[in-house]
Amino acid sequence: MNSKQLHAAFVFLLAVADKTKYIFVKMSPKIKEVCIEMRELIIKLRKEGNSLNSIARTVNRAKSTVQTILKNFSESKSVASKARSGRVPRGSSRLQRYIRSVVVKNPKVTAVEIRNILESDDNVNVRVPRKKPFISH
Fold it and tell me: Domain Transposase IS30-like HTH: where (predicted)?
């Protein structure tokens, strides 16, 4: 279970137990990713024979964070972050800069107006999705 599921389960259990009130517990904010130097230090301390708890106290991080860093290092033999999932950006960096400049000049420009500006430019290809037939079962 991730933290959101645990939070939802906790609120549900409190609601079932009380039957009259919903108690919402504020979750702690997420922190930024651990820097590479800190990861290298954690791995160095572990190779020296320190325990997870002592490493966590030394670097002022949670034991689970230290454990995850060590597990990822043992699997990949690297301290670098894994590639993030997600959609690959469309268009060249030049096109993205051009669109950004249009928006900076006029922050209230709509997506349709941006498309029309790009269509009028000869150097840019704008894809218009084809109409698909409606198919019912």
Answer: 31-71
